[in-house]
Amino acid sequence: MLSHDVFEFIIHTNPNKIGYHVQAIIGLEAKVGYHDEIASQLQPYRAVRFIGAFSGKHDLIIQAYFRNNEELVTFVDQQLSEIEGIISVDVNVELKQYKDTFSYVD
């Protein structure tokens, strides 16, 4: 399995242990043709852990971690608002986590 790249070895940091207490899943509605540009502009942000293109209500969904709600508000109001092509932002803050795993096999 190792020789076929079935396994990826990562170190998963517990965000709460290093001061990141706010996890947000942020859905973005984007103008047609802007998906790649928006995603590339989001990549440098350290708070952003995941960026994906999706079908359905949101064109792009990002997962991001923040120290507090003020950092989240600043990210949305200042950083996201400056990215051309974003039509709307849907911020969902995690209230309680029930499962977080990277294991997909029994």
UniProtKB/TrEMBL annotation:
InterPro entries: Dimeric_a/b-barrel (IPR011008), Tscrpt_reg_AsnC/Lrp_C (IPR019887)
Domain of life: Bacteria
Residue span, Transcription regulator AsnC/Lrp ligand binding domain: 28-96
Protein name: Lrp/AsnC family transcriptional regulator, regulator for asnA, asnC and gidA
Species annotation: Natribacillus halophilus
